[in-house]
Amino acid sequence: MDDWKYVPAGLYSAPRCGAGTGTPTKAGGKELVLSTLTKILIILLTVSSIFLCGVVVTYVGNADNYRQKYNSIRNERDSLDKKVDALTKQINKNISEKQQVEDKLNEKIASLKAKTAELESKLEDAEREKAILLQKVDSWTSITRDFYETNDKQGQLLKNTLAELNKVQAEQIKQKKELDETTTALVEKMAIIETLESKTKRLLEEKSELQSRLDKMLRPFGKATAETAPVTPPIDTVRPAATETKGIGLQGLVTEVDLKNSLAGISLGAADGVKEGMRFHVSRGDEFLCDILIIDVDSKKSVGVLELVQQNPQIGDNVATNL
């Protein structure tokens, strides 16, 4: 090993040779193995050199293409960088616009939420009002039903009253006919009485004349006839009786009040002289309240319709036919 030195391929220098032999020598009998390895190394170096030369030639041949490709790729990269910058600016702009839109949308959402809360509150109020109105509708339905029932009763009562009124009118017509007949008979009797009065007057005149003659005949003898009293009293002329105008003057109290049907009851009845169609005035102290037109009469109480209502009557108010 001391006599060998490694040199690159092409620059190989043979080792120093042993004397007179012409072959490398080495102590220890390893000369053949070292020579083979050296050859293999030389061959490998040669092949590597050839390969490197081929690579260099290939590189030199393709260098221009790679440069063109590099320039093209660099230009494309620059173009892409510009596009990236433009797109980045556009994206930033879009992000800014998006942020502004989001801010506006958030404001609108907040406003809509406030309006929604307000509408929900109004809806709750409307639901409460609806419930109240439904209760009122139910109440009015009940009142209307009662009103129709009362109206039916009043209608039946009115029919009965009209029937009684027709009976009263028929009776009044009958009484009027009887009155006409009585008046005719009275006129005839008055005519007869007038005739009798004229005859009586004539007889009295004749009597006076005869009395005066008799007095003249008896006066020379100093006598006078005594005045004779009539056997029958003189008949007065028949005169029509004057209509009595004295007021009835009934007074009582209000015992019942039905404002819904405009009815009221009083403490006076048929036993007190109350009749259907009579009108009573309701007062409280000196204040006039209304009138009650009687439509139904019982023995001790009566019921009438409220008219000319100034104030609603109450139980205990005064009623009278005359104010």
List the helices and strands and how they pair.
Blueprint: H1 31-218, E1 251-258, E2 263-266, E3 279-284, E4 287-297, E5 302-307, E6 318-320
Antiparallel strand pairs: 1-2, 1-6, 2-5, 3-4, 3-6, 4-5
3D architecture notes:
This protein has 323 residues and is of the alpha+beta class. The protein has a domain at 251-320: Rod shape-determining protein MreC, domain 1 (Thrombin, subunit H, Beta Barrel), CATH 2.40.10. 58% of the residues lie in helices and 12% in strands. It is built from one helix and six strands, in the order H-E-E-E-E-E-E. The chain has one helix at 31-218, and strands at 251-258, 263-266, 279-284, 287-297, 302-307, 318-320. It has a six-stranded antiparallel beta barrel. A hairpin with a 4-residue loop joins strand 1 (251-258) and strand 2 (263-266). The longest helix is centred in the middle third of the chain and has 188 residues, at 31-218.
* Main sheet summary: 6 strands, antiparallel, barrel
State the name of the first-level CATH class of the domain at 251-320.
Mainly Beta
CATH topology of the domain at 251-320: Thrombin, subunit H
Tell me the strand order in the biggest sheet. Answer: 1-2-5-4-3-6
User: What is the typical, i.e. mean, pLDDT?
Assistant: 79
What pattern of helices and strands is seen along the backbone? HEEEEEE
Architecture of the domain at 251-320 in CATH?
Beta Barrel
Low-confidence stretches: 1-33, 221-226, 228-246
Helix content: 55-70%
Number of strands: 6
- What structural class do you assign from the helix and strand content? alpha+beta
Taking all Cα atoms into account, the compactness measure Rg is 76 Å
Beta percentage is: 5-15%
